[in-house]
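Build the 3D complex.
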Amino acid sequence: MNEIRLTCPPRLDKESGSELFKRLRHEKVTEGQTLVLDFSETEFLDSLGGARLIEISDHLRRWGGQMRLENEHGDVAEFLKVITPALSVTSSIQPKEVEVLEKIGGTAITVGEEIWQFIDLCIDAIYWTVLGPLEGKGFRWGMLLDEMHEMGVRAIGIVCMMNFLLGLIIAMLSAKQVENYGVQILVADAMMIGFARELAAVMTAVVVAARTGAAIAAELATMKVQEEIDALRGMGLNVAQFLVAPKLLSMVLMLPCLWVLGLITSLSGGFVWGVFVLKFNFSVWYTETLNAAHFQDLLQGFLKTIAFAIAIALIGCHNGLRVTGGSRGVGLMTTRAVVMDIFVMICIDIVFATIFYYILG
Amino acid sequence: MNTKDNHTIIEVRDLVTHYGETQILDHVSLAVPRGTVYVIIGGSGCGKTTLLKHMCGLLKPSSGQILYQGEDIVPMEEDDLAKMQRSIGIAFQTSGLLNSMTVGDNVALPLREYGNMDEPLIQAVVRMKLGLVGLADMAHLMPDELSGGMRKRAGLARAIALDPPLVYFDEPSAGLDPIMACGLDELILDLRRMLGITFVIVTHELDSIRKIADRILMLDRGTVIFDGTMEDVERTETERVRQFFERRPDEYIVQRTI
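Done.
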């Protein structure tokens, strides 16, 4: 027999629909069979009842059967008409199976594209920061001042605080280590060398990456999502000139300034420990610190901050401009920007260490 | 007036509200009859959206009462308010779909949270509701893969997921092409007829108002200047209302355009 006939109850809702479904499951549906649902008695159908009909049609489709409605009338008929599209669509679309090689290839293409985009952004940004203004193509100086205030002046407090505390901790720990040898005065040297070469620059850059790097990414990402970037492009404005260049220049100008402040406060952290806890004479500690200061160390720290500054600004902008998919995308890209900032910073650090200790010797 | 009046689903009495120092709504009163399409109109910035947000308890007024099924929602605690909000569907101007989940999951969200249903039934309801708005086969897409009109319809599908008796719709046809806008009007009328849903709609679209409105309320600078049916609109003497429906610009705009 090629047809199953079922009569629908007078009220088709969640419960009676479930009953109907059970009755159908008792009948074994086979390939090519048609279920005829008789609606002659049905006067009422609510949306959960309708949902049960959708479940029934899914069940039939799974077993190769079909469904036909009969004798529907009045409101029920109208309601059935509007849910017809849902009756004829399969519930979920299976995602396509992806082969391993396909996956690797896909990833390689994405990474390649991203690197290319980043290089493109770098070229654009450097052009509009350095060559553009020199060629008289304009630079948003007002925007630059705003950015410098936001990135630099407003970060002074947190940068100084973090560096001071780190200086204090390093002094505390290294003094403990050398206590038994009676050479605690060398802590002053260690502080100077360590912070000039490495710690002040990294600490300052980490604070700025978390603070400003995230802000840059979030700002540009939100602008992209709200079509502000498209609006700028539509007005014929260059995004690199309008948004990226002021941020890049401001970062390159402000991060070294913050580094200087960070270096001074971190050394004063060590100084507080040396003078007030280790009870060294002020001038002894001061002279020792200055004696340990070498131009090459300071130059290394300074150049590093400039490299960090470029990295933070460009990575922030890059991730911000790559956003897709609304609010969630903004969050993802902001996180990604900060993680990338810190990772790239460590890479830059390694490069500098190699150059200064192994190549320049 | 009888507060337990069964014909009125939601009623606003003497609503006054401020944003900071600025008064947005000034003694607004209205009553929405059950099973109607109630349209709120008015110029930009006159407080329409603010009024709507008050009517679903998203904002607290400075003073006044909002009675939903006879109960005042203004002094309600969080829990009671949430219960009341469950029985109201809200479709936002920019759809309000959560970007982090698929369209289907968006519609399923209220069902999973409050619906007390098993997963196959939820999936079936999701498909039916998406089918009602013409998106039956789009459940697996992310909201940012949809066009503006589709997002708006998906937002409506989520609003009606729990079969609420009352649905608020902010600017249903704004930004849609005429065919789509007209289809959405039809859909609103269908849903009202078949599911008995009461609609409170904020809109500017004159054609759409003429087609769907059972009752019209017009706000101007925070006060109600008109409340009546479409026939009343034809007969009204209120200058501002006539201006709105005849699409006449304000004097100062005319001067500027010449």
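The CA atoms of residues 82 and 286 of chain A lie 85 Å apart.
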